[in-house]
Amino acid sequence: DEEKVKYLAPDKYWETDSAVIKEKAKDLKTPKQIYNFVTSYLVYNENKLNSASIERLGALSAFNSPKEAVCMEFSDLFIALSRSAGIPAREVVGYAYTQNTRLRPLSFAAQGDLLHAWPEYWDDTFGWVQVDPTWASTSGGLDYFNKLDFNHITLVQRGLSSTNPVPAGAFKKIGDSQKKDVEVAFAQELPQITATPEIELQASDNIISGIPTKVKATVKNIGSTSVIGESLMLTANRLKITSENPINLPLLPPFSNKQFTYDLESKSSLKKFQDTLILSFGDTETAKNIEIIPFYYLVMSPKFLVVSSGVVLVVASGLVLYSKLHKKRVKIFRDFL
């Protein structure tokens, strides 16, 4: 809630504290009502596109002069009315692809680059929702409230300030103010869509029976599209898996990876036996053979005997040395007396 309050404040071009804005906002309770009002009340002024520079009027001036609007005024008025009505809102500036500049015009001037501005409002269910009242008005009523198209490409979002950050194209050297810097090109061929998961199982070759152990599982998506609604599952014949299994992965984005740890247990046994761990994710599987050995195998192993002998030798040497030093100290003490 504290975060959302930041997007209700007035600013230079969002005069939510204006009496006329407040009064109008009382009649408009929902984002849809505000959107409908802005699209029908403001009139897009195509003549302003012929100007060397387009002055931004702000919400209040747009409200008072509805026939002087371009995309900035449509956005500013929507944001100001929304904020005044208690609905968090902010501005988006970006590139909008259009094949018909009369029906879907661009009018945000960034020193030589012609971009587009549109607002977005906060919805407690869907988060930030982008709408375009400008194109809804100029296109004669196309629905840009319920289904904004993919022709809108965000460059910056303005919420805490109505002027910052500035978009791409606004950073220019002196003398290059009319130079076009923002170039957007579209792929001629779409890449082949692939969802290619890879899985890896990291586990010791030997497990001591009766002692809990852990194994690590990694799942990677090396494809170009997300893997949706799959589960990572570990199976074994004799080992008991005590951690969560299967593990549901609602979404694994392209070129991402996730790592998980499984807890395993085995019953105490006096015999050595083998088991096979099988890790599966969708149609992908990998397996690893595990040998479960009794604890006494560890005690009788050559390495353990060598280490144990070394420890015994060190301890014995220490005791002998301590005994000699102790006797020497006792003799010195007696001679002193």
UniProtKB/TrEMBL annotation:
Keywords: Membrane, Transmembrane, Transmembrane helix. The keyword Transmembrane applies. The keyword Transmembrane applies. SUPFAM superfamilies: Cysteine proteinases. Residues 63-135 form the Transglutaminase-like domain. It comes from the Bacteria. The chain crosses the membrane at residues 295-322. This is Transglutaminase-like domain-containing protein. It comes from Candidatus Portnoybacteria bacterium CG10_big_fil_rev_8_21_14_0_10_36_7.
